[in-house]
Amino acid sequence: MNTYSIDPCFASWRTAARRLLSARIDPQDILWYDGSGTPPLFSGDLDGLPPGEAPRIPRAFFPLAEMVACHRDPLRWSLLYQTAYRMTIGGKSRLLDQAADPLVRTLNQRAKAVSRDRHKMKAFVRFRKMGELDSGREQFSAWFEPEHHIVELTAPFFAKRFASFDWSIMTPDRCAHWNGRELRFTDGVPASEAPTEDALEEFWKTYYSSIFNPARLKLNAMQSEMPKKYWKNLPEAELINDLVKQAQARTHGMISRPPTVKTPRPPSGS
Amino acid sequence: MDLKRKLAILADAAKYDASCASSGTKRRDSSGSDKALGSSGGAGICHSYAPDGRCISLLKLLLTNACIYDCLYCINRRSSDTPRARFTPDEVVRLTLDFYKRNYIEGLFLSSGIVRNPDHTMEQVIEVARRLREDHDFRGYIHLKTIPEASQELIEEAGRYADRISINIELPTQKGLEKFAPEKNLPRTRDAMGGIRERIDAARDERKQHRRRPAFAPAGQSTQMIVGADGASDHDILHRSHDLYSNYRLRRVYYSAFSPIPSSSPALPLKAPPLVREHRLYQADWLLRFYGYKVGEIIHREQPNLDLDLDPKLSWALRHREHFPVDVNRAPREMLLRIPGIGVRSVMRILSARRHGRLRLGDLGRLGVSLKKCSPFLVTCDYSPQPSLLEGDRLRLRFLPPPEQLELDLGAPAHDPLAAISARTGEI
């Protein structure tokens, strides 16, 4: 049993996996080490493997694998290698179509969790304005806590959407920075680095409380889409408890108040 | 009046419009530009959720809530004593851009009370969209509410700036409109929707020939019906939806359970209809659009309202037991779609998985299907339901909600368990 060391990214796993596949190494004979957890006592040497031609992994593998590689599960590299092995040496090139296969099911679940996390990042990042350059170019910054390693995969979405101002998205794992020309990534930072305020948030909170309809309280529906773990970084979430508390009284007020019987005003301009 | 106060009044006035979709428009982004802002296309993004469970995707505002119409169910009708406010176009433009840059929203949903006359109002609404698109190169999503009485040229202009345009049909029957919305009329609304459909179709055809031709409302048109304010039945509502989907190719019909409003009209019911009714209508709507059901299969004139206890797909299955159990290893797609508890995506997975081998019951579980609901209705290579299960009343009883499920049933009598059932829209 050998442990092979890689950087914690898909590209590094892919290079190593190609070497291992070309030497036809069985998934059961290897472990992976990506820098997290306890370092192995003995490491396998990829260059020392017997040479051979790397089998071609079917194209369908890659979009799924790239997502699974972002998952926080420490076993993800091993799951990916098992899959690649079965799809090539194992002869099951259409393996991924078999959604009921336990391995495929696990991969799909991991990919789904990552995809959901990416979607929530696109939704729940909240930029705060930090200032403007002399040129008038605005600068924004945000703090976000993703569940998986998704910053690099998701940052291009923000670069395309917010190309015309500078921004940084900071997270505990990794930070992304955009300057109008290129995306740059740096190490994660502690939460104390998060930007703290933006005057516009008062308007956003006003909007949030006004668009809420107290006559149809549905807390479970809200929380299944916006779980509590995200609340601490959403400026509007601090209003939720009070809105819920007042909802019953507000609705009761609407119902018990006598209907308006009023002579219609004549139509006016505004 | 200060801007925050206006925002509070004009967002409050806009919240009875259920539509918040930001998906399905043309793909665009701001790469390579140092002036453009925003992107859209692909899946919509819900940036927040209010405690009413509704998603907040767009900044939903009225330009003004002053209105010369007197639709009884509407908080902004001219006889209501609600506080009034009016935004200038620039104020809406500023708020949209400022919210967008902070990633609070996908774009703007703009509607308005009718001031002076329909054309004047429409011009103001269009002016906001024009400034966003032309002066600020805004590439986010814009949904404009249009007024059926506005001139065709103005609707034409709205469709050039907007991703989606919509006209609310409000109530399914002309009779209901006469009683509750005397200034509105069904034939005129249908005419306007027909005009929009023609324009959308024409723009799509032109773009097939010449890709640079301008798009016209690429995310299509939608509408909204209010449920439970007038006496209309689910039969009336679903037949109207069917009419709108088939004749006008609407992308969505939204159903909005009438919600008690401050200073309501005495002609209205004081209490809201149970939210579950709205939920059942959405489920029926899904069956029409994605499951291949005909409207006559879901609802009959003799029993003109949907069963509130059971979803309409399950109701259909219970009424048509002769079609079950369905063999998941052999049945065509149309029949798989009729098995209660199996959604569109699960059907796709089943079709793909069964090419590689015969499916057992455990395989269905691993495909993400909830066996509890579907197992009486299907056969796999290692399972078939007890024949007695499909007979008699026991099957219906098995699916009825437990009698005690009460929580947070505001505005409903405390002993009504139906009011408490959460009413989400989605797959069945």
From TrEMBL, chain A:
It comes from the Bacteria. Residues 76-236 form the DUF4130 domain. NCBIfam families: SAM_7_link_chp (TIGR03915). This is TIGR03915 family putative DNA repair protein. It comes from Haloferula rosea.
From TrEMBL, chain B:
Its cofactor is [4Fe-4S] cluster. The keyword Isomerase does not apply. Keywords: Iron, Iron-sulfur, Metal-binding, S-adenosyl-L-methionine. Residues 22-41 are annotated as: Disordered. GO terms for molecular function: catalytic activity; iron-sulfur cluster binding; metal ion binding. The keyword Iron applies. It comes from the Bacteria. Residues 51-294 form the Radical SAM core domain. Pfam families: Radical_SAM. This is DNA modification/repair radical SAM protein.
